[in-house]
Amino acid sequence: MPVVDGTAADGFGPVVDAFAENFRSRNELGAACTVYHEGECVVDIWGGYRDTAGEQPWAEHTMAMAFSGTKGMAATATAVALSRGLFALEDRIADHWPEFARHGKETITVQQLLRHRSGLATLDEPVTAAQLADHDELAEVLAAQKPDWGPGTRHGYHTFTLGWYTSELFRRTDGRTVGEFFADEVADPLDAEFHIGLPESVPDERVAELDPFGPVQLLRNAHRLSPRYLAALLNPRSLSNRAANCVAYDDPTDLTEPPLRSVEIPSANGIGTARGLAQVYDDLATGGDRLGIDEATYEELTTVPTPPSGGDRDLVVRIRNEYDMGYSKPYGEFTFGSSDAAFGTPGFGGTFGFADPDADLAFAYVPNRLGVHLVDDPREVAVREAVYDCLQ
Fold first, then answer.
1. Band of pLDDT at residue 230, cut at 50, 70 and 90
2. Which of 101, 116, 208, 231 has its CA 20 to 30 A from that of 14?
3. How far is 372 from 353, CA to CA, in rounded Å?
4. Taking the domain 4-391, which CATH number applies?
């Protein structure tokens, strides 16, 4: 039985128990969880192993791949940029990036992009690490894309592309990429250890190895995925398949290896600690004062938008859901938090981080054994539910 280490405030012992139970009965390998309540860190725990051989214990400062949990960090940078007036939600992207105005993209707004409604969920060809390292070349690839559906009429999960389009908007208005902006204006002020593009100075032994699932495990657990989504993934022409295959790699675990871990994939390759994720969401859960989030931006963060005219079923992941400001919102088949004001992003394999402003709560769970659930991985759900039980 792996050792669970860390601290928990009085009254939060059941969270530690639920976390430990993951290793006994839910096949966890290594993980960390951090919870803030009313601005105080009430849970900061870790356990298991950072390597797939089960020989190296997960340590206090072990970092792991957050996959789409990265979207929440890029979205936080966007909220800071909006508060500073670098661009506005109603701005047309082409007003800041003239080359973007091709193939029916002339009127796409910043808000449509952040709500996954721009229709730009796929790429004609997967991009390589070399292309991702060349921001000018990547911008040309992005500008040449045609929307997959009428912008604004539907939403569909921009699995990889959301972060790249957002980053080019940052380059055109601020000069920095979204990863650079996040490091300077979010992570550094909050002392949050999270990176969008891992610096070479971070030693390999600090990054947890990923333990992936194979095709057999996927098929055995198909009932845990949306049947529509799984069927679409098996069709190479579907939006679901093409949205999931925007990067040239052999396996998702390649994202933790050079050179892909060092380039910016602001929707998918952020690496950090659960504590780092939770520190960012803590400021957002308690008003965003340290990051300078203004009132209008914060109101947008905590409001569930009206679904698009074409319906609330996601064209890519094939479930009823909703997005705003680059985050997922509690809606449809994915609910979390104590009210509709909550916002956050789940990540492939079981990562989840979110802010719950009505409860003054921030939560982050990061594992290295990849699960097959689209949302609501049983490991993080068990710990998350224990947190809310403790609040009661």
1. confident
2. 208
3. 17
4. 3.40.710.10
